[in-house]
Amino acid sequence: MNFQLTEEHLAVQEAAREFAQKELLPGVIDRDIEARFPAEQVQKMAELGFLGMMVDPNYHGGGMDTLSYVIAMEELSKIDASASVAMSVNNSLVCWGLEKYGTEQQKENYLKPLASGQILGAFCLSEPEAGSDATSQRTEAVREGNFYILNGTKNWITNGSSASVYLVIAQTDHSKGHKGISAFIVEKGWDGFVIGKKEDKMGIRGSDTHSLMFTDVKVPVENRIGEEGFGFNFAMETLNGGRIGIAAQALGIAAGAYEFSLAYSKERKAFGKPISQHQAIQFKLADMATQIEAARLLVYKAAVLKDQGEDYAHASAMAKLYASEVAMNVTTEAVQIHGGYGYVREYHVERLMRDAKITQIYEGTSEIQKIVISRSLLR
Ligand code: CAA
Predict the structure, then answer these.
(1) Does residue 41 surpass a pLDDT of 90?
(2) From atom 16 of ligand 1, which residue's Cα is the shortest distance away?
């Protein structure tokens, strides 16, 4: 066991930290108020290689390990979780599955532009009546010759309007339950594919979350990922990696709120001295730092297991469960440390608190993570 980051990891951390300060911090409050997608910032993230970090360079990716990816995710999430979720979805929910299970043609057509960040991707599993209960897919794809005819609705899709390529999970054979679910690549602009309403959210307000409607969309058979019936397992495997990305995002939200609080506590005076000199604040900072460090170790462990080719489903669920709970605790305490200033937008921590909440919900709620963890304990 080695707790030292390599030179390469430190360089990624430095680059991501600098990018977050220079490019994400300016305007982050306005983007949150206006619920505006950070399009220019995501474009710059693409230029720096943040959108396909782990993809093989032969497919225009960065060829880096998962540890580099979580390190970058943490730094960006300290400042702007709306930008970092676009990155997380593109890397772990879209590029990863295409690289692992896509055909050479699919990689040529879709993975290359996605990994270089030329275009963005979205992952479409959730439906109005299939969130946690993901096997209850109503969206269906019926084969007709060389096409599937896709019909249905997807909900809460990250990168919903800014993506160009959508990985869509749909039922191809209702009689087979989850073994009758398949995965497809769908392009924006195809006939019958309509981007629905944008959600007005509590947090990650800059992220463009939409519902999507498919009415008789013709999807070529060559756009199916893997065999017919592989779609549910594909989604679950993809989410195992996705959850590491969201765990890193939660870690970053917590660490960002902690850093704002530490700095504020040294400046703000009460009862004749900086509030950092009061034990009430010192103990809060100590608890926050300890929880963040524990979350970071779980996130790094999940990333390293994935890089080593070990089973990481259980570790990624633990990392996401714990880091998202830490994000909620730490951001709430950060608002408390800031007092009245913490409750207004200017000081960032109220936004981080709102952003933290989604990490306990998307890519599997905390309750779903407990199902994944307990099933692996009892297997
Ligand atoms: N890793 C690998 N395989 C898994 C798995 C995991 N974590 N969880 C389940 N599976 C596999 C099972 O092994 C089983 O496969 P076989 O039939 O081949 O043996 C299959 O999936 C079905 O599993 P279960 O019988 O356990 O199914 P279930 O219905 O009882 O429970 C569940 C499955 C774990 C609850 C699953 O439905 C689940 O994870 N739900 C949450 C869905 C989710 O995370 N949604 C997030 C939406 S995406 C999103 O938020 C993206 C975004 O935009 C940010």
Answers:
(1) yes
(2) 233
